[in-house]
From TrEMBL:
Spans through the membrane: none
GO molecular function: endonuclease activity
Name of this protein: HNH nuclease domain-containing protein
Tree of life domain: Bacteria
Domain HNH nuclease: 54-100
InterPro entries attached to this UniProt entry: His-Me_finger_sf, HNH_nuc, Homing_endonuclease_His-Me
Gene3D superfamilies: Homing Intron 3 (I-ppo) Encoded Endonuclease, Chain A
């Protein structure tokens, strides 16, 4: 369960310039997701301290683990792979090499449920993959169904994200644009009516003529039945 209470991290800073408090909300996996700040264009939060701009999670790691010469030379890894997390126990100093290995191990970011911005959960993704594989529902329709962008669905399909969920999933081929069941039904109705040329039906339904022909000969979309 996500707890929506807003926590404040006190870094004990007593500098001249007051800045807004470091606030966070604890996420499902114990991530401290930064709250009430704007992300910079690189996808990180920043904070000004001692007349210097720090990545917020770096500032916190230094604050927790010490401003040692060694730490200052290293990068801060997100063990949870959630860039927006500032939970000190999820942060670890490491080499740039280790840091990039983290990303590789995690697949491609954003990783999944643990990434702060994701509003899909593992169950949603399983369901999406099942629908992608077993129905002709479009990316757009799936996006609407799960209140995410069409591109999010495409990313799932192309295994750019959520690779770890439903491993036996076979992506839909890129080029084979899938037509919604509703459209297929409409095409079948129009074909049955017998009043229109296939060319005209194609225009009316916004699909190419070959598709209409394939539907007509039951070469494709055989599973979509009119009532
Ligand atoms: Zn975390």
């Amino acid at each position: 369960m996500q707890e929506n209470k807003i926590h404040v991290y006190n870094d004990g800073y007593k500098g001249k310039f007051k800045s807004s408090p470091i606030q966070y909300i604890i996420g499902d996996n114990g991530c401290w997701n930064v709250y009430g700040r704007n992300l910079d264009t690189d996808g990180y939060y920043y904070i000004s301290r001692n007349c210097k701009k720090y990545k917020l999670h770096r500032w916190i790691a230094l604050n927790e683990y010490g401003f040692t010469e060694e730490n200052q030379k290293l990068v801060v890894r997100h063990l949870c792979n959630n860039k927006k997390c500032i939970n000190p126990s999820h942060l670890k100093f490491g080499t740039p090499k280790e840091n990039s290995e983290d990303s590789v191990l995690a697949g491609i970011q954003p990783h999944g449920e643990t990434s702060g911005q994701s509003i899909l959960n593992n169950d949603d993704v399983l369901k999406i993959k099942e629908l992608l594989q077993n129905t002709s529902i479009t990316f757009k329709e799936l996006g609407e169904m799960f209140s995410v962008d069409e591109s999010t669905i495409q990313d799932i399909n192309q295994r750019r994200t959520w690779v770890h969920i439903g491993k036996e999933f076979t992506p839909r081929p890129k080029k084979d644009r899938v037509i919604a069941d509703e459209t297929v039904k409409k095409v079948k109705e129009l074909l049955l009516e017998g009043k229109y040329l296939q060319k005209e039906i194609a225009l009316m339904c916004g699909i190419d003529r070959k598709r209409v022909s394939d539907i007509n000969t039951n070469k494709k979309y055989k599973n979509v039945k009119l009532l």
